[in-house]
UniProtKB/TrEMBL annotation:
Any Pfam family: LGT
Protein name as catalogued: Phosphatidylglycerol--prolipoprotein diacylglyceryl transferase
GO terms of biological process kind: lipoprotein biosynthetic process
Keywords of this entry: Cell membrane, Membrane, Transferase, Transmembrane, Transmembrane helix
Membrane-crossing segments per the record: 20-43, 64-83, 103-123, 130-147, 190-208, 220-238, 250-269
Enzyme class (EC, first level): transferase
UniProt cross-references to InterPro entries, sorted A to Z: Lgt
Length: 307
């Protein structure tokens, strides 16, 4: 890896880390390592305690995790690729479209693809979709800051040039810099801003969970909060192109989510969350008794609750 160090010099932070570790002849990307760590920590310490406390067994949660990770990664990568000014390069060399090891994920794509996946999974397995939506956003607020460490090592999410004390200058020749950026020049660490913003959202969501709100409340809160964070943070992003009225693609997406999607999700949640939360069913193993909500449904012979 060479002399990989973070060292403050000339009023900025110099980053000299090779994004790839070579174990013999095998290249291991820090970006992938951070994503794997993010998945592990977010599932083990965030998702699993949340869903098990709400009647969903570990096996079901693991199956949901696998499908959600696969589809969310594809969604994040595709949404990133379609934003690039050199989209033609990706189309001429399609393998680059799925080359996540090069860096480059757009989290809005992961959110949309991930929530769609858990919704289908919940319907197929007769589980409350809102429980899984809450689990998904818990996964996001724990995992995303860890994953952003990979972006910080790569250097693929940067803001404008800066001489602030926490500005970052990449000096390793293998840094994965975007076309806007150069080695040795200090930029605002937009990836670190992303991580901090997500941590703050997570603190708010865990405070909400302590209040014992209905299933789905965390997801309903997370969607507009994340959109607002992107409106703010992308003001510092220089690694993505501006497409209109001084706004980046992600900011336009954030506006659509904030003004249209978030109110729609809230209205659906208000109309359905009570029934779906009460109707959570987990497929029990052979010979095991049904969960309490399932027993209630069997006794009434219907899939909803009395209002």
């Amino acid at each position: 890896m060479g002399s990989s160090t973070f060292a403050a010099a000339l009023g900025v932070i110099r980053i000299d880390i090779d994004p790839v570790i070579h174990i013999g002849s095998i290249p291991v990307h820090w970006y992938g390592v951070m994503y794997a760590l993010a998945f592990l920590v977010a599932f083990r310490y965030g998702v699993l305690p949340h869903v098990e406390a709400r009647g969903i067994d570990r096996s079901t949660a693991e199956r949901a995790l696998i499908w959600t990770i696969i589809v969310a990664l594809l969604g994040a990568r595709l949404y990133y690729v379609v934003q690039q000014p050199n989209l033609g390069d990706y189309l001429r060399n399609p393998i680059r479209i799925v080359a996540v090891w090069e860096g480059g994920m757009a989290f809005f794509g992961a959110i949309v693809a991930g929530l769609a996946t858990v919704t289908v999974f919940a319907w197929h397995n007769r589980i409350s979709a809102w429980v899984l939506w809450d689990a998904a956003v818990i996964f996001a607020v724990i995992g995303q800051p860890i994953g952003r460490i990979g972006n910080i090592i790569n250097g693929d999410i940067l803001g404008a040039q800066s001489n602030l004390p926490w500005a970052t200058a990449y000096v390793n020749p293998h840094a994965v810099l975007q076309s806007c950026c150069q080695l040795g020049v200090a930029y605002q660490p937009a990836a670190a801003y992303e991580a901090i913003g997500t941590i703050l959202i997570g603190v708010g969501l865990f405070a909400l969970r302590r209040r014992g709100l209905r299933h789905g409340a965390l997801a309903v809160a997370y969607i507009p909060l994340y959109a607002i964070s992107q409106l703010i943070i992308f003001q510092f992003r220089a690694s993505e192109p501006i497409i209109g009225l001084g706004l980046h693609q992600a900011q336009w997406t954030a506006l659509v989510i904030l003004l249209l999607v978030s109110p729609a999700v809230y209205l659906v949640w208000r109309r359905t969350s009570a029934a779906l939360s009460a109707g959570t069913i987990v497929k029990s193993g052979a010979g095991s008794p049904p969960s309490e909500p399932a027993a209630k449904l069997q006794s009434t012979g219907r899939g909803g609750t009395k209002q």
